[in-house]
């Protein structure tokens, strides 16, 4: 049965973000705040970078605030000025990505002012941004979220997110379904998914961890993987993407959300996360780690998969 | 010429075409999406949803081979792809915003260089457009000089009738020929009213005024505020019926391989990267500026048309909510 999800706290959160942004911009704690603002279409939102206290009232938080804004902090986004300390609005899942980037020495904590969202979930897609948040329309990542309340921020509005109703664990169920398949059935599934890819790279461009200034997949002298959106090039791209994110992906699921061809990219990410949890007891969280599970070696590492 | 056809006869017509071995492409469910794809039977045709990708790929596919090469010692063998291999195709259920983009593409692909791959497919295709009776809040054809019943680009135009069936109007010789070949399936119009048109919310833009602003605002702080959020993907360009940039690459080995043409986009950071390493569009706002300039200024300067039909696809897919109609409104108000 479809149930409405209680997001009544989002208007309080909006007010709190605005006043905090106004404060930190007017006393020059930060030089800019990266947040969300309303778009032209009913219910739509877009990221915004504000630099004056007067613009603070443009900030909002709604169930359509899907973007992981952390991507704008990376060196790949040179267009967003990085001078001085920057304020940024983060949900729990976004914060885990930010923490990952701190661990990879991509960001410095003292250059950031984190405005955390006590989160009750967001929509799965922006194709209909004015949709009501329900147990159907909620993002799959939110159905398995245990990080609604971000930890370690500089400011978090004092509201307690309403507990989410019982939600179907869509990723876990789908992974179980795929794991039960034979390898060739599973390969058929992914072949079909990858064949839909048009190489628009929206998935890469929104990923906070895809900050390489020269993506291997864009190289053509020499070509490292086939660039064209055909079966071999697509498969190569998806394997590169999945492997480069294993042990790093924080689960913000932006790649999957933005894919115009509905490819379930986060399913691969979640499967990788599951393997890493099982093999190395490692998972993305709110604590900064200076080495990742695949960038460190321990004598007692599980090696059973080497055959 | 005006005719009429019942819903049942339209389906029969599609099945007859298929039975004859004719390739028929139209909107159909493909996994979770509706896409323009070859129909296997008339029941595949979806008439109430705008496909996720545009009709351009009927003439300009995501990726296609241009030639094959093989090297043995000093011998190099090149094999052309014969454009004659493209099959005769009927495109059916094409939305007016998609059909209208076809003449826009014609202009560029038959301009200083005649793109035989595009033109050969184009010559072998009959386009049957379908008037829109619903719109969503991303649609804005009416704001860029088109309308939900615009015949531009269609050889035949279907308009849904009250109570079912379609009014059929031919718009070209190809359309006339099609009606003549399949005359048994059509009847004379009996005066049944056509269904009410879709009503996109936006008022017509003053495209002249917008262009006048673009003409002398290559440098303007607005580009930063509009596009600092743009993450530089190809989503908007790839779903767009009018965007037509492509790249060419050789793939294979030293011994054998293929030369391929595939979609490219001005949003990509590498799009204007010079061999020297210099990139004149070094930041994203400069790339997004090109998107708007090309659509509403450069293309107009060259071909007297706008490179946008208001289909709204780019608005629906942009990962960061960049809304081209909103951008045009903003420019118009300046
Ligand atoms: S995954 Fe958790 S923190 Fe992220 S949007 Fe969903 S509920 Fe909020
Ligand atoms: S966003 Fe989707 S279609 Fe685009 S490159 Fe990524 S997987 Fe492919
Ligand atoms: S620019 Fe956007 S709205 Fe205009 S034709 Fe292209 S995809 Fe459609
Ligand atoms: S406008 Fe949106 S869809 Fe287009 S390149 Fe920028 S982020 Fe991608």
Automatic annotation (TrEMBL), chain A:
The keyword 4Fe-4S does not apply. Residues 187-209, 240-270 form the 4Fe-4S ferredoxin-type domain. InterPro entries: 4Fe4S_Fe-S-bd, 4Fe4S_Fe_S_CS, Helical_ferredxn. Gene3D superfamilies: Alpha-helical ferredoxin. Keywords: Iron, Iron-sulfur, Metal-binding. The keyword Hydrolase does not apply. One of its GO terms (molecular function) is metal ion binding. It comes from the Bacteria. This is 4Fe-4S dicluster domain-containing protein.
Automatic annotation (TrEMBL), chain B:
Residues 219-251, 299-327 form the 4Fe-4S ferredoxin-type domain. It comes from the Bacteria. GO terms for molecular function: iron-sulfur cluster binding; metal ion binding. InterPro entries: 4Fe4S_Fe-S-bd (IPR017896), 4Fe4S_Fe_S_CS (IPR017900), Helical_ferredxn (IPR009051). It holds the Pfam family Fer4_22. The keyword Ribosomal protein does not apply. Gene3D superfamilies: Alpha-helical ferredoxin (1.10.1060.10). Keywords: Iron, Iron-sulfur, Metal-binding. The keyword Metal-binding applies. This is 4Fe-4S dicluster domain-containing protein. It comes from Trichlorobacter thiogenes. The lineage of its organism: Bacteria, Pseudomonadati, Thermodesulfobacteriota, Desulfuromonadia, Geobacterales.
């Amino acid at each position: 049965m479809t149930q409405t999800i209680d997001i009544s706290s989002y208007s309080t959160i909006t007010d709190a973000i605005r006043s905090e942004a106004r404060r930190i911009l007017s006393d020059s704690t930060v030089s800019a705040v990266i947040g969300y603002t309303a778009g032209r279409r009913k219910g739509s939102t877009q990221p915004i970078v504000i630099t004056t206290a007067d613009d603070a009232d443009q900030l909002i938080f709604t169930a359509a605030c899907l973007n992981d804004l952390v991507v704008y902090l990376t060196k790949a986004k040179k267009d967003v000025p990085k001078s001085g300390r920057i304020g940024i609005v983060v949900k729990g899942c976004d914060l885990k990505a930010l923490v990952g980037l701190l661990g990879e020495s991509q960001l410095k904590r003292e250059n950031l002012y984190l405005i955390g969202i006590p989160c009750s979930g967001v929509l799965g897609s922006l194709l209909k941004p004015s949709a009501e948040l329900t147990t159907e329309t909620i993002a799959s990542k939110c159905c398995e979220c245990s990080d609604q309340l971000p930890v370690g921020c500089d400011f978090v509005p004092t509201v307690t997110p309403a507990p989410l109703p019982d939600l179907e664990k869509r990723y876990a169920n789908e992974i179980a379904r795929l794991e039960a398949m034979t390898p060739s059935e599973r390969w058929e599934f992914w072949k079909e998914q990858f064949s839909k890819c048009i190489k628009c790279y929206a998935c890469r461009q929104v990923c906070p961890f895809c900050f390489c200034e020269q993506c291997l997949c864009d190289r053509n002298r020499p070509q490292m993987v086939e660039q064209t959106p055909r079966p071999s090039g697509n498969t190569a791209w998806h394997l590169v993407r999945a492997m480069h994110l294993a042990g790093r992906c924080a689960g913000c699921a932006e790649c999957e959300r933005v894919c115009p061809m509905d490819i379930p990219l986060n399913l691969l990410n979640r499967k990788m996360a599951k393997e890493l949890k099982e093999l190395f007891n490692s998972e993305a969280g709110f604590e900064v780690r200076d080495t990742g599970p695949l960038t460190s070696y321990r004598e007692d590492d599980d090696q059973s998969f080497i055959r | 010429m005006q005719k009429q056809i019942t819903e049942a006869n339209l389906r029969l017509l599609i099945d007859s075409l298929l039975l004859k071995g004719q390739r028929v492409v139209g909107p159909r469910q493909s996994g979770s999406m509706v896409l323009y794809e070859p129909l296997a039977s008339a029941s595949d045709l979806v008439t109430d949803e705008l496909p996720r990708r545009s009709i351009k790929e009927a003439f300009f596919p995501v990726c296609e081979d241009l030639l094959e090469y093989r090297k043995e010692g000093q011998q190099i063998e090149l094999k052309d792809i014969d454009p004659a291999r493209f099959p005769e195709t009927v495109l059916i259920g094409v939305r007016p915003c998609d059909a209208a983009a076809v003449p826009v593409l014609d202009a560029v692909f038959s301009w200083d260089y005649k793109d035989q791959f595009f033109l050969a497919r184009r010559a072998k295709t009959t386009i049957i457009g379908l008037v829109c009776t619903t719109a969503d809040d991303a649609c804005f054809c009416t704001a860029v000089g088109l309308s939900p019943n615009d015949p531009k680009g269609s050889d035949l135009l279907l308009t849904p009738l009250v109570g079912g069936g379609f009014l059929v109007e031919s718009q070209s010789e190809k359309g006339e020929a099609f009606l003549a070949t399949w005359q048994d399936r059509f009847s004379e119009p009996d005066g049944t009213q056509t269904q009410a048109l879709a009503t996109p919310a936006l008022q017509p833009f003053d495209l002249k005024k917008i262009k006048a602003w673009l003409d002398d605002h290559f440098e303007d702080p607005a580009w930063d505020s509009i596009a600092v959020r743009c993450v530089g993907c190809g989503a908007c360009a790839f779903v767009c019926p009018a965007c037509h940039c492509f790249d060419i690459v050789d793939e294979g080995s030293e011994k054998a391989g293929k030369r391929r043409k595939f979609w490219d986009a001005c949003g990509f950071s590498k799009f204007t990267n010079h061999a020297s390493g210099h990139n004149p569009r070094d930041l994203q706002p400069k790339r997004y500026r090109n998107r708007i300039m090309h659509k509403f200024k450069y293309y107009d300067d060259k071909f007297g048309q706008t490179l946008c039909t208001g289909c709204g696809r780019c608005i629906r897919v942009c990962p960061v909510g960049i809304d081209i109609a909103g951008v045009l409104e903003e420019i118009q108000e300046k």
